[in-house]
TrEMBL record:
Keyword annotations of the record: Cytoplasm, Hydrolase, Protease, Serine protease
UniProt-listed InterPro entries: ClpP (IPR001907), ClpP/crotonase-like_dom_sf (IPR029045), ClpP/TepA (IPR023562)
Record bears the keyword Protease: yes
Superkingdom, taxonomy of origin: Bacteria
Species in which this protein is naturally found: Neorhizobium alkalisoli
Single GO term (MF): ATP-dependent peptidase activity
Signal peptide from the UniProt entry: none
A single BP term in Gene Ontology: protein quality control for misfolded or incompletely synthesized proteins
Protein name (database record): ATP-dependent Clp protease proteolytic subunit
CDD domains, per the entry: S14_ClpP_1 (cd07016)
GO cellular component, one term: endopeptidase Clp complex
Family per similarity comment: Belongs to the peptidase S14 family.
């Protein structure tokens, strides 16, 4: 049978073939290996402009188990952390060392209560918040209302006393980043991240009195600890009374919509787009007619309160 396909139009192999060996890309690779020149500046971590994110699967677990969980207790010495760790581009919120420092100055030299329900976010910012809290001269009580995952679990360890809901979770894992480059860049990335994982092990070990090697294994396995497990392992001291926690359904719905926006941004970044370009692309969608179908009455044109409508518009395209 004659093959009419042009000679240069050959199918691309799904794997790289070297001799008799078939080398499939590693699990951490984004797409296929590319033989193109690198961008102007080296990819991560050569420019050291890196954020250690919470994995998307952890956000999904948070949405299933803890989204919308809030505390009933209020007071002038209470700091609430019901958000992602690090400044959140999409809301202008987020848990940052700068904001926590300002809250501590406003409260003054008093005992502090920190209420946490967070899927984590930027691990480096979480360490900064932890250090800010540890510098406070008065006792700090941390209350894990729903989940303290990833970077938020580091913040939780700042408590002199840590209380956790019976159905709440503390999650610990290794530092997680997006990286691009060749094998030398990947090796450099891994070596550069190792001290940060070790620093987290030290923080958990100092609080829990558990063996560092055991904690490292828990981090490798991405371990979720329920309230009773966290207490048994020294990551918490006592259970919270059940009547101190409630679920805000409106907050839960907003948490879900925001997470979908963050997931879209991460998908674009995973495809090789910069975070700036990804956000610009999503902002164009934001301006699509009819996107803000459920905007809060009185909200301005640039308000993100119509996230449900925005997501419906995106999904229908």
């Amino acid at each position: 049978m004659m093959n009419n396909k042009p000679a240069g139009d050959k199918p691309k192999p799904s794997a790289v073939v070297l001799g008799s060996s078939v080398l499939r890309p590693p699990r951490g690779a984004i797409g296929r290996p590319q033989g193109m020149s690198r961008p102007n500046a080296l990819p991560l971590p050569a420019n050291r402009d890196v954020s250690a994110f919470t994995k998307p699967a952890v956000f999904d677990r948070w949405l299933d188990d803890a989204a919308g969980v809030r505390a009933l207790e209020t007071g002038d010495n209470v700091i609430t952390m019901f958000d992602v760790v690090g400044e959140d581009f999409w809301t202008g919120g987020g848990i940052t060392a700068k904001k926590v420092s300002a809250q501590l100055r406003a409260i003054g030299p008093k005992p502090i209560v920190v209420q946490i329900n967070s899927p984590g976010g930027d691990m480096f910012e979480g360490i900064a918040v932890y250090n800010v809290l540890r510098e406070h001269p008065q006792p700090i009580t941390v209350k894990v209302m729903g989940m303290a995952a990833s970077a938020a679990s580091i913040i939780a360890m700042a408590g002199d006393t840590i209380e956790i809901g019976a159905a709440s979770f503390i999650m610990i894992h290794n530092c997680w980043v997006m990286a691009m480059g060749n094998r030398h860049d990947m090796r450099e990335t891994a070596e550069w991240l190792e001290p940060f994982d070790n620093a987290m092990v030290d923080v958990y070990a100092a609080r829990s009195k558990q063996d560092a090697k055991l904690i490292a294994k828990w981090m490798d396995a991405e371990t979720f600890m329920s309230g009773s497990q966290a207490i048994d392992r020294g990551f918490a001291d006592a259970l919270l009374p059940a009547d101190t926690v409630t679920v805000d359904e409106n907050a839960k719905a907003l948490d879900r919509d925001l997470n979908d926006i963050r997931a879209m941004e991460l998908s674009l970044v995973s495809a090789g787009m910069s975070r700036t370009d990804a956000r610009a692309r999503l902002n164009k969608i934001k301006g699509t007619p009819g996107a803000a179908l459920e905007a809060t009455p009185g909200a301005g044109a640039d308000d993100w309160s119509g996230l449900s409508g925005l997501l419906s518009s995106i999904r229908s395209n």
